[in-house]
Amino acid sequence: MRNVLIIGSTQGTGRELAAAYLRDGANVVVTGREARRAEAVAAELTAETATFTAAASGQPLVGGTGEGPPSVGSVTGLALDLSRPETVAAALAPVEQVDRLVLVGMVRDRNTLAGFDIAAASQLAVTKIVGYTAVIAALAERLTPQAAVLLFGGGAKDYPYPGSTTLTAVNAAVTGMVRTLSVELAPVRVNGIHPGPIRDSPFWQGKEELAGTLAKFQAETLTGELGSMADIVDACLFLLENRLANGIDLPVDGGHA
Ligand SMILES: NC(=O)c1ccc[n+]([C@@H]2O[C@H](COP(=O)([O-])OP(=O)(O)OC[C@H]3O[C@@H](n4cnc5c(N)ncnc54)[C@H](OP(=O)(O)O)[C@@H]3O)[C@@H](O)[C@H]2O)c1
């Protein structure tokens, strides 16, 4: 049974990926900055998965034999703050072996040069670049030889906008981290994913002021469609489960001219 650890999975795409692995029988650890929230999300996922399994008729989402309904895994919650990398190793003490490690967590930083917020920019840079690396360093000896690591970047890497300087820089750093970590951790596989705007993720919900931004992104996308969390989970599962997927830095955004 696979042990899956998803850093930053109390909501959004990380939570959806946790649900997918749980439905497929994995042991999943979900994390957020607060233990209480992470534990509450673990309990929610357990309840949702029981409902799903009762209704399921057959096919596992990842691997498996295809015979009968998937066996449900287990999920626990853990507190871990990527913006405080010096605390990460202690936070990960309860984690044993890891087969799939996914680094998702971050807080957005819309930070134009006018009134540039140094604290916010520093927090984002530390969270993604140092925090992600600190988690991997702490767990390096606990990654199984067949393990896979997935780092989240984002489309702002290649498609910036006013205020995205730090976000664009840290997402571009993910490209470099995939290169170096896939060498240092071999034979463990390391990949990166760069979603375009994920239309049903929590960030975009209930924000009328961002409707124009989403419409602009959509108009600039070759497919004319924005992705959903399910689309991104599907791409994550490819990068995490395909035995030849290694050192890939994958944009998943519908394409651009
Ligand atoms: N949504 C999009 O349109 C979009 C587009 C491109 C790229 N992305 C990338 O896709 C990933 C998922 O985005 P999302 O919008 O689905 O998720 P999200 O709603 O932004 O959720 C972020 C998760 O990260 C956790 N988190 C935040 N700060 C953290 C920290 N310092 N340490 C540890 N965990 C932390 C949050 O948990 P707590 O609040 O409980 O701590 C939450 O579970 C992100 O890396 C994002 O950059 C998203």
Number of helical stretches of at least 4 residues? 7
Q: What is the helix fraction of residues, given as a range? A: 25-40%
The ligands bound in this entry are: NADP nicotinamide-adenine-dinucleotide phosphate
Low-pLDDT parts are none
The N- and C-terminal alpha carbons lie at a distance of: 42 Å
Largest sheet: 7 strands, parallel
Radius of gyration: 18 Å
Strand content: 15-25%
Give the overall silhouette.
Answer: globular
Number of domains as seen in the coordinates: 1
Q: Look at the structure and give the mean pLDDT.
A: 93
What is the CATH superfamily label? NAD(P)-binding Rossmann-like Domain
Tell me what the CATH architecture is.
Answer: 3-Layer(aba) Sandwich
Name the helix and strand elements from N-terminus to C-terminus, one letter apiece. Answer: EHEHEHEHEHEHHE
User: CATH first level: which class?
Assistant: Alpha Beta
CATH-derived topology: Rossmann fold
Structural classification: alpha/beta
Task: Write a structural description.
The protein has 257 residues and is of the alpha/beta class. The protein has 7 helices and 7 strands; from the N terminus they run βαβαβαβαβαβααβ. The protein has helices at 12-23, 35-55, 88-91, 118-139, 165-184, 211-220, 229-241, and strands spanning 3-7, 27-32, 74-79, 98-103, 143-152, 189-195, 249-252. The chain has a 7-stranded parallel sheet, with helices on both faces. Helix 1 links the parallel strand 1 (3-7) and strand 2. Helix 1 (12-23) crosses helix 2 (35-55), helix 1 (12-23) packs across helix 7 and helix 4 (118-139) packs parallel to helix 5. It is globular and about 45 Å long. The model has no long low-confidence stretch (mean pLDDT 93). The site of NADP nicotinamide-adenine-dinucleotide phosphate (NAP) has 29 residues, from helix 1.
